[in-house]
Amino acid sequence: QVQLVESGGGLVQPGGSLRLSCAASGSIFSINGMAWYRQAPGKQRELVAHITSGGSANYVASVKGRFTISRDNAKNTVYLQMNSLNSEDTAVYYCAAGKSAYVMDYWGKGTLVTVSS
After folding, report:
1. Each residue of 42-81: pLDDT tens digit?
2. Number of DSSP helices (H) and strands (E) in the chain, helices first
3. Whole-number Cα distances in Å, 24 to 7, 17, 86
């Protein structure tokens, strides 16, 4: 089993930045792909960004150029740097990890990001 714990959420003004972190523990040797998802109020959960074990990253169109996903395999941590935040980014952000590159098997409990003035 793998445990994922997110941190770094909070309240930020429009145009501001936040960095989310997700620390993995447990059977970390089994982790391949990692990702960040988000779920806004009244909406379905959506994939925000994904990164393979080799560092190849993909993003949903709405965050391209504003968000950056990265991972530190030595620290078993994945990050999401979020810049130029707007109200549409308000959501609970979830970290996920998978034993394969693109299927997520493990989920964190989420961290709330609120973008508001």
Report:
1. 999 999 999 999 899 999 999 999 999 999 988 899 999 9
2. 0, 11
3. 12, 23, 28
